[in-house]
Design a protein that fits this description.
Shape: globular
Radius of gyration: 19 Å
Oligomer: single chain
Largest sheet: 4 strands, antiparallel
CATH superfamily: YVTN repeat-like/Quinoprotein amine dehydrogenase
Distance between the termini: 41 Å
CATH class: Mainly Beta
Helix content: under 10%
């Protein structure tokens, strides 16, 4: 079984050769396209802004996994944990903030960890001790998703309708303004940045200059990360339309309808796309023409991306289940973690790291058979 790993990029650690991407949105067009499941997202986003003495700050947490460490953004702090045990190495800030909320998983470049927050700040931390290297305060909105690292360029989507490109010292290289918020991490082929936007548009931008190459209206709001492969970009919208688009000219190669809105990037394996939707389906499409190979119901919304394992692809759902599907679509096992799962599943070796949105145990480690790794212990009271 072979996989094109460039398609579903490890959430925030991959350094890409020079490419880029951008997008925008419009409130009146957005209303009719965001189904009731938007409440899931807004509960995660809007409840994060509570402040005041003794008031807990909640968020839809995100994590970055390497072979030795887990970098975990959870409410008022960012944690560096040992990947084997979950033990805390450092935390930033030292005391949880009630004014700075960290939602997006951090991004890793060299010895820097790049983290965005809800106080409109993008901060570089030392991976060794969590100390600040620099801080970018030029944005006027929240950082909903992680920045994309492309060699020596940081491309950060922001809710203030801008995409910001910075060098590794935090200096602004360019910014691109769209009609409305950027929620999703862009994708890049090393020359162009491809950015989905809530205004229905997918934008293609020159990585060096930020100049617009092309844009295309994809009929509904885009909150899912795109995936790249073989000169094609794949992305889904909140109306359940999935598109394959030529990266050179922005022309649609094919589009396919699935039962529910798409919130995350597909995983590309053996010329097939695997992804979930908000109705709880896991969909498998042929990458060449978009035809549906199989579709399976998991019982509740599948919001995050799956994790590629040796024997298949695991997905998490809102009900709190992790489900492993074989590459032929057959269900291998189901394990309940008893907490809602909205974030992307992460994998190291044959271990699956689950970010749980609710409950005291916010990170759960499973082995390839779905059994919990009891040596990994990390929890925060909420």
């Amino acid at each position: 079984m072979t996989a094109d790993l460039t398609l579903f990029r490890a959430p925030h650690s991959l350094k890409i050769s020079k490419k880029g991407f951008t997008y925008q949105m419009e409130n009146k067009r957005m209303k009719k396209n965001i189904p009731i499941v938007i409440s899931i997202f807004w509960l995660a986003l809007l409840l994060t802004s509570c402040t005041g003495s003794g008031t807990a700050v909640n968020s839809w947490s995100g994590a970055l996994l390497t072979d030795t460490a887990v970098y975990f953004a959870d409410a008022g702090q960012v944690y560096a944990l040992r990947a084997e045990t979950g033990n805390i190495v450092w935390q930033y800030p030292e005391k949880a903030s009630t004014t700075r909320v960290f939602l997006a998983a951090p991004a890793l470049v060299d010895d820097q960890l790049i983290v965005g927050d809800y106080a409109n700040l993008l901060t570089s931390l030392s991976i060794r001790d969590g100390k600040e290297n620099w801080q970018f305060n030029g944005a006027k909105g929240r950082y909903i998703d992680s920045p994309l690292i492309i060699e020596d360029t940081i491309v950060a989507p922001n809710a203030d309708n801008h995409l910001y490109a910075l060098d590794l010292s935090g200096k602004t290289m360019w910014n691109f303004e769209a009609g409305h918020s950027f929620w999703a991490q862009p994708a890049s082929d090393g020359k162009t940045v491809f950015a989905p936007c809530l205004d229905h548009y997918l934008y293609a931008l020159d990585l060096e200059t930020g100049n617009l190459k092309w844009k295309i209206d994809l009929k509904a709001s885009l909150v899912a990360r795109p995936a790249l492969g073989d000169g094609t970009i794949y992305v889904g919208n909140l109306d359940g339309d999935v598109f394959a688009i030529n990266i050179e000219n922005g022309k649609i190669i094919w589009n396919q309808k699935v039962p529910g809105g798409v919130w995350s990037a597909p995983i590309f394996v053996d010329n097939q796309l695997f992804f979930g939707d908000q109705t709880g389906n896991v969909n498998i499409l042929k990458a060449e023409d978009g035809s549906i190979v199989q579709s399976f119901q998991t019982g509740s919304a599948v919001i995050g991306s799956g994790a590629l394992l040796t024997d298949g692809i695991a997905f998490g759902n809102e009900k709190g289940e992790v489900i492993l599907f074989g590459f032929n679509g057959e269900k291998q096992w189901v394990r309940a973690v008893d907490r809602s799962i909205y974030s992307n599943l992460l994998v190291f070796g044959d271990q699956i790291l689950v970010v749980a949105t609710k409950g005291a145990k916010t990170l759960v480690s499973l082995d390839a058979n779905g059994n919990e790794n009891t040596n990994f212990i990390f929890s925060i009271k909420k």
